[in-house]
Amino acid sequence: MKYYGKKLSVSFKKAFDEVVKIINFIKSRPLQNRLFKILCEDMGSVHTSLLLHTEVRWLSRGKILTRIFELRDEVRAFFLEHNFELKDRFLDQMWLLKVAYLSDIFTKINELNFTLQGRHVNVFTAHEKIHAFKKKLDFWKICMSSNEFDCFLTVKCFSEEKEVEINEVFIEEIIQNLTGLSEGFNQYFPNDQQVKNKNKLWIKNPFIVNTRPPAMSAKEYETFIEFTSDSSLQEKFKSMSLAEFWCSSNDKYP
């Protein structure tokens, strides 16, 4: 997924880099940071600060993009009294539209990343999540071709609120961006992995397998039949995570 962050189109990459410069301009100067906080408080904002971006923790991109988009009115007001080369960006509706899309897509990638973490995640659940995300990418491209933006709510809400016309050039740029992301996922997670995982379904649920798995010898399958006929293990399987189940069965069926 870090692949995607480095493969943004020129236009989206430029917009993101400018967001980082704007944040650094405000956050790197203590006085300006305090003034910005006071301004946000006076405007009754939900947030009173921007988030710094770090290249090491690249997933922070989704968070900083979302935060600066939510505070776009406050940032625009802040720059009324501060001279900065990029201050006019917050008057540019198309630039804000790009930031809105980046906020949406990085948020989706962040959500995927979090579902791949945790002690109960295994190769099967991880593969299912990634496979689902790859299918979503294809679906989002179809939506873009039909001018349907429900899948990117920040873009949709902003365009409707400000009555910004989403032109074909912008839509095509999103489709190309999603295509690039899809190619990256297919490179790292090829579809033939799904076939390989089907041959290992006996690990995911041994009690629904009625034929010998390709990887098992005849002797191993005889033991496997005993294993799946053990009613006590069937009860364990219902109440344990997959990893806990197999570890707990190791003594009796090594």
TrEMBL record:
It comes from the Eukaryota. This is Zinc finger BED domain-containing protein 5-like. It comes from Sipha flava. The gene is LOC112688819.
